Amino acid sequence: MPSLPDTPLGLIGGLLILVVLMSLSNWFTKRVIRATVRRLAARTKATWDDRIIERKVFTRLAHVVPAVLAYYGIGLALGVTPADIASAADPDTTAATSAALIFAATLVQRISLAFIVVTAAVAFSSLLEAANDIYNESYSESKSRPIKGYLQVVSLVAYIGAGVIVVSVLAQVSPVAFLSGLGALTAVLMLVFKDTILSLVASIQIMSNDMIRIGDWVEVPQSNADGDIIDIALHTVKIQNWDKTISTIPTHKFIGESFKNWRGMSESGGRRIKRAIKMDVNTIRFLTKEEIERLSRFEVLRDYMKQKKESLAEHAASHENADSDSIPERRGLTNIGTFRAYIVNYLKAHPMIHNDMTLLVRQLDPGPQGVPIEVYCFSKDINWVNYEDLQGDIFDHLFALLPEFGLRAFQEPAGSDFAKLV
């Protein structure tokens, strides 16, 4: 059986030997594990083992080896037997040995056990992160059903459990007795973990109702966020705004506050175009016969103008025998009405406009800035850049065509207009 070192030099030598052995075991274990695991992973086509390696699960577990060596080797280094440690509470027994060395050996063993527990918890948390990476890589529904929040809850529980065990080991108190003493602190714990509880409940509601997914374009006005969701965790949701900044929003905010999710637009395959041209009221009038004939040659207006001319001819024929003393109802084609018909037929013929979705051109209430003619339709291309190009091309065409109908867009006077008057 080990005996106490006879000299301080022997004590120092024993401790140095133990420290060197721990360092060598840590280096050797990590090196062997890293090489072995990488060699095995290289032989497989699967990627799940690569994710475990990237998260350094085995590397963290390797730290357990020097802790185990310290737990069992500290007695040999200090010359303290397990019986000495077990009888440390008996003053008569410990009188024959050094109480200080026994205390030091006991303390090192407790710290070693605590370190093993913490290391295991850290490795388990890394394993959960690797599981999340594997899930995101292997399953297409990972964007709509992320599990990162749930794994973080499991990791949090593991850390709490590790903390309880560590305190129990260091204080030499049973974990059951330690937990029973925390009953009175339940209210304090609820307050401390309030955000975690709210986030967990919110995560469950978000996933069950499929409210947000990774990759969704969302607008959260209260948080001044507008962009794509790049991460959904237990406590936070990260949004990359269009200016490339990152907004971090508490998960429970998506339950307690309103936000807009543009996923419906993406899945529908159509993006809405809603814009108005404001017409100068002074330019609205009936078309002359020459203008009617000229506009009838427009391809998109040919059928419309033919139908309207037949309708006008029938109306004129029905009023041939009217009383000469009365003014007959004047019916004719207006330039603004014909322009609306042109826009409708032009959009229906456009290859990039959805005809299966709402398509209308309507006249809104006139106001101080003229009569708005609103275009309401859907683009087939939902890509932002292409959508803006299409919308710009359509309205470039419509603005350039206004003089053909004798119309003018309303515009408030600018400095150049007043300069012309002077």
**Structural class category:** alpha+beta
Query: What's the domain count?
Result: 3
- The helix tally amounts to 18
Strand count, sense and barrel status of the largest sheet are: 5 strands, antiparallel
Strand content: 5-15%
* CA distance, first residue to last residue: 115 Å
What general form does the structure show? rod-shaped
**Helix content, binned percent:** 55-70%
CA-based gyration radius: 40 Å
The number of E-state strands comes to: 8
Element order: H for helix, E for strand:
HHHHHHHHHHHEEEEHEHEHHHEEHH
Poorly predicted regions are: 93-97
As an assembly, this protein is single chain
Structure characterization notes:
The strands form 2 sheets. A 5-stranded antiparallel beta sheet has the order 4-3-2-1-5, with no helix packed on it. With 422 residues, the chain is an alpha+beta fold. 20% of the residues are buried. Helix 4 packs antiparallel against helix 7 and helix 7 (99-138) runs antiparallel to helix 8. It contains 18 helices and 8 strands. It folds into 3 domains: 8-181, no CATH class; 210-268, SH3 type barrels (Roll), CATH 2.30.30; 271-314 and 331-413, 2-Layer Sandwich (Alpha-Beta Plaits). The N and C termini lie far apart (115 Å).
